[in-house]
Amino acid sequence: MNERVELLRQRFDIITQNAEKAALGANRDIGDIKIIAVSKIQKFDHVADAVGAGLKYFGENYVAELREKHVQLTEIGVSVPEWHFIGHLQTNKVKYIAEFITMIHSVDSLKLAEEIDKRAQQHERVIDVLIQINTSGEESKSGIEPEDAPELAEKILKLKNVKLRGLMTIGTFTDDESLQRQEFKLLRNTLNSVNEKLGTDLKELSMGMTGDYAVAISEGATMVRIGTAIFGERHYD
To answer: For 79-133, what is each residue's pLDDT tens digit?
Structure first.
């Protein structure tokens, strides 16, 4: 077996065990939680090895890089079960990923949702989306204010080729667990508010990364986005 495949499998097993422990502590089922491998900056053959190690869900931040990896992997016969787009998405870039993307986590405007709907319709697809919420209050972070979520959700729910599944946040980069919990609870409460106001039953909460995914799971995350703990430190050229 390829050494990298075995290393990736070992790392993913450790993450899964930690996630199971966190889920158990919160009286949750690990089967309700997706561990998304954040493969940005990683070479396409590393993603191929991760698929070989049994990983199913991959998150990318940059459209051009995601598109290139998808094409390269397809050419060598590797099919990624699910691609998730987790970075800031410009409306003029949607067309490059609409054909194959499973879920877009970072919808922060009706304009973007409408473009995803348009491109999905062209490919006779329905694309799952999450609304990105700014739970930290940091101006550098994308996402809408929590109180604006019900209004945007109501409008997105009317689109035919987009399926709203829930909410996403990028929390503050901190080791302060109390702050982590505060922001994760805010996202969960925002989802509850959307469901109460609109009579919906949206369930997905995409929150938590390598440094805080166990906390996120304990606070209700259904998706955690993990890069470094799976692939190791990134090396930016």
So the answer is: 988 999 999 999 999 999 999 999 999 999 999 999 999 999 999 999 999 999 9
pTM over 0.85: yes
Cβ contacts of 157 within 8 Å, gap of 6 or more: 164, 198, 200
The answer for residues whose C-beta is within 8 angstroms of residue 154's C-beta and 6 or more apart is 198
Q: Residue 34: CB partners within 8 Å, gap ≥ 6?
A: 57, 222, 223, 224
d(CA 108, CA 164): 12
DSSP-assigned beta bridge partners for residue 59: 38, 84
Give the CATH fold of the 3-231 domain.
TIM Barrel (3.20.20)
CA distance 181 to 34: 19
- Other beta carbons within 10 angstroms of residue 75's beta carbon come to 9
Indicate the domain borders of the chain: 3-231
